[in-house]
Amino acid sequence: MELQKLYSYVRKSIDAYGMIQEGDHIAVGISGGKDSLTLLYALAGLRRFYPKKFSLTAITVHLGWPDMDFEPVRRLCETLGVPYELVKTQVAQIVFDERKEKHPCSLCAKLRKGALNERAIALGCNRIAYAHHRDDFVETFLLSLTKEGRIASLSPQYVLERTGLVLIRPMMLVPEARIRGFCSKYGLPVVKNSCPADKNSAREEIRRTLGKLRQDDPEVGARIFTAICGAGFEDWMPKSR
Length: 241
Description:
The chain is an alpha/beta fold and about 240 residues long. Helix content is about 50%, strand content about 10%.
């Protein structure tokens, strides 16, 4: 995927839902994975020409895995002119060593998001950008349907009631395959996830199922996303045209 195509995807989402307003200070959640690094690259570029001026700070919550090195991410942020914050935590120790969680993902996510929100507020940010892409929306929809018996998906944006922070998802229209191609083309410094539960979750199970469906019909994910967009979820109403 070319950079201009990435800008087009991201700007279309931002414009449709009013994700960025004049003077916003946006915290970009950086896990070190391909998705968050692509989002960082997109927003850093959009700053230069988007009509509403905004600033960025990249924030990584280090979960405590000793072999995860974020120095290449720091260097990328320097190249892009984005301040970088590394928040060191003991989430891995709490979840796996102390609590010995059999299903660690939920607690890990709660602690990680709490640390991210706390630092964002301390830095004066009013919005947080997550790197969920189109396939994440589809997978969440299928998870809710098959595991919880309800029809729901991620929201393009919403307000975190306890903090007032606005969470935005500017890559909601970008297919995951395009992100993989972009990371490869631009040589983004992806940091391998050391978590032992990374490939052993309900989401990964849904991802494999969706992969099997795509073998017979490559466009099935796109059609499910179209159905989500047309489902009439209250928090999916566009803010502007």
